[in-house]
User: Fold this.
Amino acid sequence: MLPVEPLTLLAFVPAGLALNLTPGADMMFCLGQGLKSGRRPAMAANFGIATGGMIHTLLAALGLGALVAAHPAAFEAIRWLGVGYLLWLAVAALRSSPFATEAQVTPTSTARAFWQGLMVNLLNPKVILFILAFLPQFVDPTRAILPQFLTLGVVFSLGGLVVNGAVGLFAGSIGQRVARSAGLSRWLSRISATIFGALALRLALMPRS
Assistant:
């Protein structure tokens, strides 16, 4: 027997896809990573974000997500760690810009991009609250909870992989074309730093509820 009823999945897929298509922190991070480093790091960041989403889903199913949501101090600690990490990425993007030389921007390795995407997702407490608010709407309380949560989390993450991956690949194609120019490379680094900085500001100012 499937963990989730087929009719429930038919209702969940379009709802999840609509949310995946809504521009958010994950999509913007893939955009910035693609512009800065190219298609492969953008896709690696995309997989890191999807992995983070599955970890959040597992924590929510086990009850840890609700525990964090119920304690403002834990929520704030995760939020400000996320702000600090995004600001660090913004500074790193600026430092990679060849302001005084004709060198090319050094791309982020795929492994590093994966971990950056994972950390950006894990350090966003809004993801915890979103999963706690969204996934239970499609969970049948008369059936095993954990398999349902994980199934829905996989489906939602797959939708995010497709949408964010398309954004990252598109941005990576642009970045690879213009990075041949030192002047345009500088602007790519500045744009990426601006995106990461804007995400940090958004997370810092975002209300808890």
